[in-house]
Amino acid sequence: MVYIGHENKLSIENKILLMREDARFDVADANLTYGPEESEEVSIPDPSLFQDIHSKQAPPKVPKVFLSNKCIFNCAYCSCRASRESDSRYCNTPRELAEISVQQAKDNGHGVFITSAIYQNANYTEELIIETLRIMREELFYKGYIHAKVMPGTDPLLIEKAGRYANRLSVNIEVAQNSGYERIAKQKNKQIILTPMHQICNLVQYAKQFKGKSNPYLAMSQTTQLMAGSTEETDRTIMTLSEALYKKFHLSRVYYTNFQYVHEARGYELPITQTPSWRARRLYQADRLQQLYGFTPDEITPEQAPNLTEHLDPKIGWALRNIHLFPIEVNRADYEELLRIPGIGLTYAKKILRARQFGTITHRSLRAIGVSLKRSNYFITCDGKYEGGKYIEHPELLEQIFQE
Ligand code: SF4
């Protein structure tokens, strides 16, 4: 591979500061994980610079490093876009980036996420990323976790090479409706994103099936990012697409972010609309309900209520729309039914099942095993006893109680 030349007037320290800034616009910028009941928010100094490495569960987070912040594309939401005037452009050499990455990974203790703007063209950028990965593995002997970005439209041979060095690969789908590309990312289209996604999926399936010493592939997982508010799309559209992506491409994780229009982008006639910050948080909650709790997009965002709301947790919203299914008797409910009770999550559903082996569950014994009855009390009976007062007959009053 021939290097065409790099823009490297900035010091390493300055580039790291810029990477921190650019990270706000890339995958997983809203990467805090939110549970339906218990917020798993993690307090870290600069959340946008980190990404979690486990599929649907919480941290650890890994730092995000950029090969380049100079893009030939012009996405309206991104600080790296071509039309943004900036005297702070950089493109690292693979060796520089490999050294920065290993250092960042060592400091963080969990791994690193290597990403980039599209520098010159997709294949050239991916080649530079692959060379970075190769140096990290073969010359710097880095054995830890690497998540590497695949540029939209990258050649299949290069994706296959990246899969030999990185543990996780991702390409960002960005918009939930095709019209979104025209509105905020004119050079992108479904095909240049779904084609690599499909290939990564095959690579990951192969790697999982033939795990072992002779298997040349490390890439065992794939993620993507979906942006809310790029068009007038509903949350139902987003959650339905997300479910389809999980199923079709066996994704480990869909990240959600809010469309933010911070600096004027030439070539777009956008109204200055910012997606409210609560929306991504609700999407994460809805995602978790679908991926871990067995809810469907139709249940979380039904046709008659296609949008998640700012003031109501999506699980509570589902329960209030389906109040006829409550109260649930905790001594008889199976695991899946327990998970549908507001206030009872994955951990406490299992604890209740274990506790049932030793006797009948009462409100008192629920408290003893740590279940907070603040939410669940309105939706359960324990050995036939109901302690939720008259509220179950008045879901509109319950809605007021649960307003956040
Ligand atoms: S392709 Fe779009 S989102 Fe990605 S770095 Fe370039 S301008 Fe930013």
Number of helices: 15
Structural class: alpha/beta
Major sheet: arrangement of strands: 1-2-3-4-5-6-7
Low-pLDDT regions: 27-59
CATH fold-type name of the largest domain: TIM Barrel
Residues in helix, %? 25-40%
Number of domains: 2
The ligands found in this model are: iron/sulfur cluster
Instruction: Kindly estimate the percentage of residues that lie in beta strands according to DSSP.
Output: 5-15%
Please give the largest β-sheet. 7 strands, mixed
Could you report the average pLDDT, rounded to the nearest whole number? Answer: 87
CATH architecture verdict of the largest domain? Alpha-Beta Barrel
CATH class of the largest domain: Alpha Beta
- Total number of beta strands: 9
What's the overall geometry?
A: globular
**N-to-C series of helices and strands:** HEEHEHEHEHHEHEHHHEHHHHEH
Task: Please provide a written account of the structure.
This protein has 404 residues and is α/β, with parallel strands linked by helices. The chain has helices spanning 12-22, 94-108, 122-139, 156-165, 179-184, 190-209, 235-249, 277-292, 297-300, 314-321, 335-339, 346-356, 363-368, 373-376, 395-402; strands at residues 50-52, 61-66, 111-115, 145-149, 168-170, 221-228, 253-258, 328-329, 380-381. It folds into two domains: 12-232 and 244-274, Alpha-Beta Barrel (TIM Barrel), CATH 3.20.20; 314-402, no CATH class. The chain has 15 helices and nine strands. The strands form two sheets. A seven-stranded mixed sheet has the order 1-2-3-4-5-6-7. Strands 8-9 form a two-stranded parallel sheet. Residues 27-59 have low confidence and may be disordered. It binds iron/sulfur cluster. Iron/sulfur cluster is lined by residues 71, 73, 75, 78, 80-81, 117-118, 185.
